[in-house]
Amino acid sequence: MTREEYIRIQNGEIVWIKNNPRDQISWKHSDEDNMVFRFEDDPEREYYLYRDYSKLTKERKAIFDRENPFWARFFSEAK
User: Fold this and answer.
1) Based on the structure, what is the number of domains in the chain?
2) Domain that holds residue 42
3) What is the pLDDT of residues 35-55, one digit of tens each?
C-alpha cells in the first residue's frame, strides 16, 4: 500500500492521514492544541486528543494506545 492510499484529500488539501496503512485511526491536520482523530469504523465522529482521550471506551483506548504509543505513555504519566 502506498502512502497515497491512506491519505484523504479534500479540496486539494490533506484532511485525514494514518500513521500506518493498517491503522484504524486517522488524524486530521490542525494546530497542536486541536489534534483531532477518528476511528475507521466511525468516520463521522471526531475526537479531540486532550479532551476526549480519557472518555474513550476500553476497546477504543486499547486501539488508540497500540497505534499511538507516544500518546499512551504521555497520558499514563500524566495520571
Assistant:
1) 1
2) 3-78
3) 899 999 998 899 999 999 999
| Cα–Cα dist 50/18, whole Å | 19
Residues 61 and 55: beta-carbon distance below 8 Å: no
Residues across the chain: 79
Question: DSSP for 35-71?
Answer: -EEEETT-TT--EEHHHHGGGS-HHHHHHHHHH-HHH
Report the C-alpha gap between 25 and 18 in whole angstroms.
6
Of all residues in the chain, what percent carry a pLDDT higher than 70? 75
Q: Report pLDDT for 43.
A: 86
